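lol ok so funny story. i was supposed to be doing the assay writeup but got distracted and ended up predicting the structure for this chain instead. priorities right. anyway since i did it might as well share w the group, maybe its usefull for someone
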Amino acid sequence: MIEYLGREHLIATAVKNKGNWEKIFADLKARRSLPSYEISRLLNSVKSKATTIIDEDYPAEIRDACPRPPFVLFYYGDLSLAQDKDRILTVVGSRKPEEYAIQYTREICEGAAKNGYIVASGLARGIDTVAAEATSGMPGHSIAVLGCGLDIYYPPENRLLQTCIAGTGLLLSEYPEGVSPAAEHFPARNRILASISKGTFIGEAMPHSGTLITAAFVLTVNHDLAVLPTLAQSPTMNNSLIKTGAALVENVDDILSFMSCAPRGKNG
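and the output, tada:
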């Protein structure tokens, strides 16, 4: 059991450890305090807003469902968008998707947003970017969860898209400003994406990919998984995921049915 020393200490500890969950946990477990001047210095380095795991506005689904929930979430935009998991659809997929996956992911995300749902993505290249582009022009309908600090534009070509989501939606990260993207950050980010929503839609999943890591997290937190079907000869894992119980989604009507139905659980 961890006894928290207050939200300012939590934020300062997260900044000190650059958002690394294990290091933050070690400091908190050992009750390592920080001098007041160091807390002030670290807090002053934070330009974004922040919510901690002991704050009332911390997203309940992340606190309750996420494996090792972040002690601090840094954000720009409207944090209330992350409060209602039943309205959130997470969308993930390949960084180099086929045109077929791009087209249908765009249509499905636009349709979901027009029907009141919020689309969450990791803002990576490929399917994530398609999802964000399809919804960022509709204020209040796009969430991006980053694997780096909020002041880092990664990939760099998404700078304007990231800025747009920060202004009209929600930009979220467990990493404080100045923290560069790293390979280990993306599986960590994926656990947040899997936890924040009622269900996750996969536009295209390649073998041994981060998308499959996200799918595993979705099942771990007992949330719903939907997948776009592909041709039988496709090298993707889409059809395999459907065979193991994921919902088959071909169009907007399917995603609306998927999002409105009762949770199916791990076994379909």
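The first helix runs from residue 7 to 16. The longest strand covers residues 72-77.
back to the writeup now i swear
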